[in-house]
Input
Amino acid sequence: MSETNPARKVAVVTGAARGIGAATAARLARDGFAVAVFDLDEAACASTVEIIEKDGGRALAVGCDVSDPEQAEAGVAEVVAELGAPAVLVNNAGIIRDNLIFKMTPQEFDAVIGVHLRGAFLMAKACQKHMVDAKWGRIINMSSAAALGNRGQSNYSSAKAGLQALTKTLAIELGPFGVTSNCVAPGFIATEMTAATAERMGITFEEFTGRYATSIPVRRVGAPEDIAQAVSYFAREEAGFVSGQVLYVAGGPKG
Ligand code: NAP
Output
């Protein structure tokens, strides 16, 4: 699809100011989608928008806290007005608040569930009506290998496992209307999120990634683009018979 093609479909990517979300937004733009770049701070979306526009694509920055029902609805309404009805939704926004269970506060638990799981629910709810009307849609949720359980992440692993259940339920409910729903579940990906974990552990990022890489069968950590290409697959026309699935992208077997 070219930029002038009126049939260009619209994709929404949350948490797209940086990391996996930014790479996914850029990839979907290269695939021909007009991309709404959602993040907490609209100004923080500027670099992703610039990358897409420099590459000849179309993008819109939207400041939105996905865990807030009114902001999710208003953000999607802005997309409809500026770009058109969303056909693809990538629920990628995320935070971590790691702690062992005996130290984790209810606030830390709720904050993580609120962004990952409630945020995905709210954004899917706001987008699905447009997809159902169009009889075509793709919902792609960013889970994690942590969904299988991870020390210090009772909040995060619960949210990521919950996202897999949400994905399967949306696949069942929305399938009759031409809408698929799938999960990408990354392993270790080098982003600011994992850099912050290294900092908390008091080691350099190079040391952290080096240690991790030895435990990964392909002997490297992932890059945001490794995840973006998996999202790109689920968003395609020809992936229309693939729904309710979880694809672990982790350099080795998981699940
Ligand atoms: P990142 O670099 O921290 O990016 C996450 C983005 O989400 C940030 O720009 C953040 O904004 C934004 N965000 C946070 N809360 C939000 C909210 N309420 N509404 C809208 N946007 C919000 O993280 P990443 O490593 O790219 O991870 C992206 C996704 O992949 C997350 O869901 C993460 O759990 C998942 N994942 C990552 C890895 C990994 O190894 N990196 C592995 C498995 C799964 P602020 O900067 O303002 O907070």
